[in-house]
Write a structure and sequence with these properties.
nucleotide-binding, about 15% strand, Gly-tRNA-synth_bsu, 27 helices, flat, alpha+beta, four-stranded antiparallel β-sheet, aminoacyl-trna synthetase
């Protein structure tokens, strides 16, 4: 017979940002718990509102299925002593299975005879097992927990009621003095308490009490109401997915309403008004085509009664918010950029790294280093220098102090107002791009260079003072910043070697004596950190770990080229025809480690194979580096592969470790020269070559 169960945890209001995670945890932990307890089921549905988390389980049996198991014990030579009697190990094994030694029989496993016992396990009643579901509830993890009253339990919010039903039977369950029953609570203001007679009645019973427990249904309901309002008013209500989920998790019974604000506020930049509406009030802004209109849309936690009064109350609150924003904007325009820059010297960026003014100075220097490496035009270089110099001025404006998400955005707007050119103004905003994985990168050269400089200084500076990320801890977002560097270089098509750029940045830190780490230690830590981020990106593209190790042997290098090399070698792993090439390269790399220098004297060659390898390498090297420079990756590997035959011939006909020391060192030097060229492409020894069957 198929049965159903329901568990509901009634709480004080949950923070909206935790609800999605709580739902996912409840679903997964319930599934794992049922499977661990051998309770089959057909479906698990999880519900949530700001005041409750619930799980509805369908298709449960009356009891666990009966099972028969074969338990494996000690080997026969341990289970039976030399007198043919049962040993203590055998007696203990049988006792542990609830049996006697007479129940033991022997079976071979991989050629060895082991003691076995068959045991029959009678299934326990489902109702009894469900009493332990309390452990699932208490296993839910949240970023922040609290205690309440005199209780010792830490949980996201105080537990106020519990529902626990198996069919129509209450499951005896208690947490911190709250006993489970059949009674749940409706909407805080519109609903009443209600008795749930059976789990299947849960959704409909609560909806009658103005609680829509299905999170997806609440969201869909809000979307339907927004669409209806758009059609009625001829508005464009931008569907912000993040805001939509947030308001979904703030209400139990959603009703959409609209209000207006004074048109005079529209002189304030749109971004300020929108941020004020969304961040402070959770309102949806209203547009007609591209123009922001003096209206807003909110979502009420309740029905449509007295909705006009609700709109007026929200209009009053928003008016105060927008008045503040208008005041901040007008006051900011009274202070010049140069006056703002003076304030940066009084604000600590990080204690060991100085003030914001010092951060800006380093950004400017690093931006010019990048500009030189990219060989950008003089006009672009001038824009980069100016943008870097004023890049953080908006951080000391009243607007950004109030709305931190507007950093860069207000910088661009104020820069335009104060007469900066377009490239400089846009770069102030673009320095923070990309903001997340998959986000847009700077579109201007000035913005891209400034963004690279800002991120490199942040990363190297943090590592210089010992703030390397560890485990899941990355308080300064260094991993995201490093991924941003790689993404900008790739998408902008910049011909720049990251390894060399990191070395130059580290040297700059050494010249400025910034940070506590020794320069050699800092360089090693920075390269290791960036290699790990590069490896992360390559593995996300299904490049095998050994190939990643191979292409990163000399550092991240020119990332787009490194990425192409990785994908090419990933494919070559499956080609039987490349095996001979790999073996030749591997022999060379192994022997090159024994070399003490790289000077080759042709006069010391004793055999034709030495001269042939030398001349072929000189020929190949010139073509190889030219092809790499022109980003012809396939061609460059084909060119390198021409060395395979003369390498094999060299090893087949020459004793590298000759008795004559000068000859021996000369041969090793020749191999080292070849190896140095090979390493530019990859460490071929790191790759585990696969051959097709």
């Amino acid at each position: 017979m198929s049965n159903e169960a329901l568990f509901e945890i009634g709480l004080e209001e949950l923070p909206a940002r935790f609800i999605s995670s709580a739902e996912n945890q409840l679903r997964e932990k319930t599934k794992e718990w049922l499977e661990a307890n051998r309770l089959p089921f057909t479906w698990i549905t999880v519900y949530s509102t700001p005041r409750r988390l619930a799980v509805y389980i369908e298709g449960l049996p009356e009891k666990q299925p009966d099972t028969e198991e074969k338990a494996k014990g000690p080997a026969e030579k341990i289970a039976v002593n030399e007198n043919g009697e049962w040993s203590k190990a055998a007696i203990g094994f049988s006792k542990g299975q609830g049996k006697t030694p007479e129940d033991i029989y022997f079976e071979e496993v991989n050629g060895t005879s082991y003691a076995h016992i068959d045991k029959y396990i009678k299934g326990e009643e489902t109702e009894t097992i469900l009493q332990d579901y309390k452990n699932v509830i208490l296993s839910l993890a949240f970023p922040k927990n609290m205690r309440w009253g005199n209780h010792s339990l830490k949980f996201i919010r105080p537990i106020r009621w519990l529902v626990a039903l198996f069919e129509s039977t209450i499951i005896p369950l208690e947490i911190e003095g709250v006993s489970a029953g059949k009674t749940t609570r409706g909407h805080r203001f519109l609903g009443k308490t209600v008795t749930i007679e059976r789990p299947s009645q849960y959704v409909s019973a609560l909806y009658e009490q103005f609680v829509a427990v299905d999170r997806n249904e609440r969201k869909a309901d809000i979307q339907r109401q927004l669409e209806q309002l758009q059609q009625e008013k001829n508005w464009n209500i931008h569907e912000d997915e993040e805001l939509l989920w947030e308001v979904t998790d703030l209400v139990e019974y959603p009703t959409v309403f609209s209000g207006s604000f004074d048109q005079s506020f529209l002189k304030v930049p749109d971004e300020v008004l929108i941020t004020s509406m969304k961040e402070h009030q959770r309102y949806f802004p209203v547009h007609r085509e591209e123009d922001l209109l003096p209206y807003f849309v909110g979502v009420r936690n309740g029905n449509g009664e007295h909705i006009d009064n609700v709109a007026k109350g929200n209009e009053k609150v928003l008016r105060a918010r927008l008045s503040d924003a208008e005041f901040f904007y007008e006051e900011d325009l009274k202070v010049s950029i140069e006056q703002r820059l003076e304030k940066l010297g009084k604000i600590v960026y990080q204690e060991e790294l100085g003030t914001l003014a010092e951060k800006v100075s380093r950004n400017e220097d690093i931006a010019l280093i990048i500009s030189d490496k990219l060989a950008i035009s003089d006009s672009d270089r001038a824009n980069v220098q100016r943008a870097a110099r004023i890049s953080k001025f908006d951080l000391v404006t009243q607007m950004v102090d109030e709305f931190t998400d507007l950093q860069g955005i207000m910088g661009e707007k104020y820069a335009r107002i104060f007469g900066e050119n377009d490239d400089v103004a846009v770069a102030i905003r673009e320095q923070y791009l990309p903001k997340q994985a998959g986000g847009a990168v700077p579109e201007t050269v000035t913005g891209a260079v400034l963004s690279l400089a800002d991120k490199l200084d942040t990363i190297v500076g943090a590592i210089a003072v010992g703030n390397l990320p560890s485990g899941s801890q990355d308080p300064y977002g260094l991993r995201r910043q490093a991924l941003g560097v790689l993404k900008i270089i790739e998408e902008r098509g910049f011909d720049i070697n990251i390894t060399e750029l990191l070395d130059r940045t580290v040297s700059y830190y050494g010249e400025k004596a910034v940070g506590t780490a020794a320069e050699t230690e800092l360089r090693a830590n920075v390269h290791e950190f960036f290699n790990a981020r590069t490896a992360y990106l390559l593995k996300k593209e299904d490049v095998e770990s050994d190939v990643v190790e191979a292409v990163l042997a000399e550092g991240s290098g020119n990332y787009p080229l490194t990425k192409e090399k990785a994908h090419l070698l990933s494919g070559k792993r499956h080609e039987d025809g490349f095996r001979a090439v790999q073996e030749a390269f591997g022999r060379t790399l192994n022997m090159a480690d024994k070399a003490e220098g790289a000077e080759v004297d042709k006069a010391l060659f004793e055999k034709e194979e030495e001269l042939r390898l030398y001349e072929k390498h000189e020929e190949v090297k010139e073509a190889f580096f030219k092809q790499l420079e022109e980003r012809e990756i396939n061609a460059s590997l084909r060119t390198l592969s021409e060395l395979a035959e003369p390498i094999h011939s060299f090893f087949d006909n020459i004793m590298v470790m000759a008795e004559d020391e000068r000859v021996r060192m000369n041969r090793l030097a020749l191999l080292k020269n070849v190896a140095d060229t090979l390493y530019v492409f990859a460490d071929f020894n790191a790759i585990q070559w696969k051959q097709q069957n």
